[in-house]
Amino acid sequence: MKFSIDRSKFINQTSNVQRAISTKTTIPILTGMKLDLSESGLTITGSNSDISITAFISKEDSDNDLKIESTGSIVLPARFFNEIIKKLPGDNFELEVLNNNQTLIKSGVSEFTINGLDAVNYPHLPDVETDNQLVLPTDVFKEVVNQTVIAVSTQESRPVLTGVNFLITSEGLTAVATDSHRLSQRKINITSDEDYNLIIPGKSLTELVRTISDSVKEISMSISENQVLFSFDNIMFYSRLLDGRYPETDRLIPDESNTRLTFDSSKLLASVERASLLSHESRNNVIKLEIKAVDKKATLYGNSPEVGTVEEVLDFDNLEGDDLEISFNPDYLKDALRSFGSNASIEMSFTSPLHPFTLRPVENRDNFVQLITPVRTF
Amino acid sequence: MDAFFASVEEREHPEYKKKCLIVAQDPRKHNHHGVVTTANYNARKYGAHSAMPAQQAVELIPKEKLVISPPNFELYRKVSDQIHDIFGEVTDNYQTVALDEAYLDVTHNKLNETNTIKIANYIQQRIVKETSLTCSVGISYNKFLAKMASDYRKPFGRTIILGKYAKEFLKPIPIEKFNGIGKAMQHKLHEMDIYTGADLQKMDQDAILEKFGKMGYVIYKRVHGIDDSPVEGHRARTSIGRERTYNRNLVTTEQINQELIYLAEMVSQDLRKKRQHGKTVVLKLRNSEFETITKRMSFQDYVQTKEEIYRVAKDIYDKLKVTDQKIRLLGITVTNLDPLSYEEVSLNLSYKGDNYE
Predict the structure, then answer these.
(1) Alpha-carbon distance B38 to B263, whole Å?
(2) Between B340, B347, B351, which is nearest A373 by CB?
(3) In terms of domains, do B306 and B255 share one?
(4) CB under 8 A, 24+ apart: contacts of A156-159
(5) Which residue segments constitute the domains of chain A, with CATH numbers given?
(6) Which terminus of chain A has a lower count of CB atoms within 10 Å, N or C?
(7) pLDDT tens by residue, A258-283
């Protein structure tokens, strides 16, 4: 195997693949980056057992300046290899696999020889059929992920909750995440010939949206038994799916309410951030919202026994319904409010102090809901 | 409490009252093993007492009078809780010793009563009324003397030791009855010809200190009526748990799940009762080889509901990958406890028709 390539184009691709490579892995060869050179171009692969990413650098694209002398494969220790490539002096570099997987890297006046590993021992990438692909606009997909992934559980006590549930039917796509204290549900209209019900790990989705550059207009999604493959540009992003059934969440979202408040998301966020300054200092991270319907007044209270108290009268657009006093974790509300974007008009709907309350964008009430459970104080 | 376990058994089985009752595993059925946990006052007349091998008690008591009852700790614990609740109505500052003994600091009390005899009377009457059992009370200005006083007249006794009579009171007491003098010290004291409180009081402080070290100093002070140890109000509990031993080993996964669900439910009930929640779940299991394994899992969030506790316990169990599944004992404990001053309401994330995943 021997080739030369434009160094900065190569680095662009390795930085994507690098996301999948972890230094902490039980399979030593996965700390390496795999290079596969064929007649048509170079494929770079990185993987931990949960996600795998490949990037293809085509010979056809003259910007890559890829010159192939002989094809082949090698696995190189990712950490050293990347550092070396980044620091090489020339615009291009040449890579050649010598005997015993020793790999020679030359650029300008510099020459490295590093020990590689036999690519035969690198695990195979998952097999995902790409006949049935769902094509999604990138901006919508990123929005769906960013709005739901905040609610996934970080606790391993119930693994399915560490993922986002994607339910795809002829009616569209519904994404739901919940850690049992909050829930986020987003719906979009897409057309699909087949129904799917899959749970994608939250961590995979976070890495995925970071990998998708803004220039990408569309991504394709292919689903198999236990893997999902996202392809865009020259990138293939594989993720393991979570095993198990996702709980039924539909019935948890209340459709009736007794008290409703309409806000500007940015204004409320600022108020909650102030109130949570003190609640964070307390053992119980709780703030209280008091609504007096007759006085048209909504007040937020936070306190820390050690530091002091905070009280803030809220600036809202509309208030209707019954009086209410409700306590909750301000971090949940902050995360939820951020997911609406700035200066969105949102409606908060409450039923009672011990029942979950919801936030919905006034513009798009049916397709997006954030649900937060209150805190019972004694 | 007076002959606590035995009195509870007599209450449950009035026919035992005229008999000599010992609460123990029956040595005739257990290959001569077993220890007397409590003997009723009739049995004590024949020399039976707690901690004696049950076999010996059987030999002391005439056959026709003897009744042996196996201990029923669950019931005793229930009665004990009832008694503790009564203490709690008098003061929060009470220190329990075993199931049936407690020190109450009544300097300040919820009854707003300054007359300690009236307080003692109140406690005794309440206990009789609610449990049909009797207890003996000792009143004094420190824990040691209160304990000595409570042992002075049993059953259903009430003894008060005033400061000026303390040393006088201790004089005739044999050293075996002194709280804090164990078998070894007794033996050494006897060798020194010391048999009673009076003998002890005559001893020189340096001599007793040299011979018995720190404990000697404690005893020296006690025999002169001094005991500074505070009543240690009920310490915050650090864990709440339940365990069960199975006569027949659990072998199927179904049986184990069922038991874990049961234990999780019990523990979550106890947590709720005690207004606690914790961040760590501990699973204990013992196999047929008597090997005991405990394994814990901790979380950032509090665990309290039966579903959560079960799920974690089950998860730990699965991770243990028990190969030879013959389970003799299962236990679930929740530790890392904090008082439940607030509780995040949880969504009921279940599926149609089932409560557990």
Answers:
(1) 30
(2) B347
(3) yes
(4) A157/B297, A157/B299, A157/B308, A157/B311, A157/B312, A157/B315, A158/B311, A158/B349, A158/B357, A159/A242, A159/A243, A159/A244
(5) 2-121 (3.10.150.10), 137-229+237-250 (3.10.150.10), 253-372 (3.70.10.10)
(6) C
(7) 999 999 999 999 999 998 888 877 76
Residue A342 scores a pLDDT above 50: yes
Cβ of A58: how many Cβ atoms within 10 Å?
Answer: 13
Residues B219 and B260 in one domain: no
Task: Say whether A327 and B351 touch across the interface (CB within 8 A).
Answer: no
User: Do B59 and B121 belong to one domain?
Assistant: no
- Domain assignment present for residue B353? The answer is no
For B165-193, write each residue's pLDDT tens digit: 999 999 999 988 888 888 888 888 888 88
Which positions in chain B have a beta carbon within 8 angstroms of at least one beta carbon in chain A? 275, 297, 299-301, 308, 311-312, 315, 338, 340-352, 357
Over range B255-282, report the average pLDDT. Answer: 90
Nearest CA in chain A to B308: A157
The annotation status of B2 as a binding-site residue, yes or no, is: no
- pTM for this model (two decimals): 0.63
B205-223 vs B183-191: helix crossing angle, rounded to 10: 130
Residue B347 lies in a domain: no
Catalytic residue among B9, B15, B64, B101: B101
The CA distance from A157 to the nearest CA of chain B, in Å, is 6
Taking only the tens place, the pLDDT of each residue in B83-140 is 988 998 888 888 888 888 999 999 888 888 889 999 999 999 999 999 999 999 999 9
Using a CB-CB cut-off of 8 Å, the residues of chain B touching A284 are 341-342
Residue found under tokens 């042996």: B68
Q: Which residue of A has its CA nearest to B313?
A: A157
List the domain range (segments joined by +) for residue B182. 173-225
Tell whether B246 and B333 lie within a shared domain.
yes
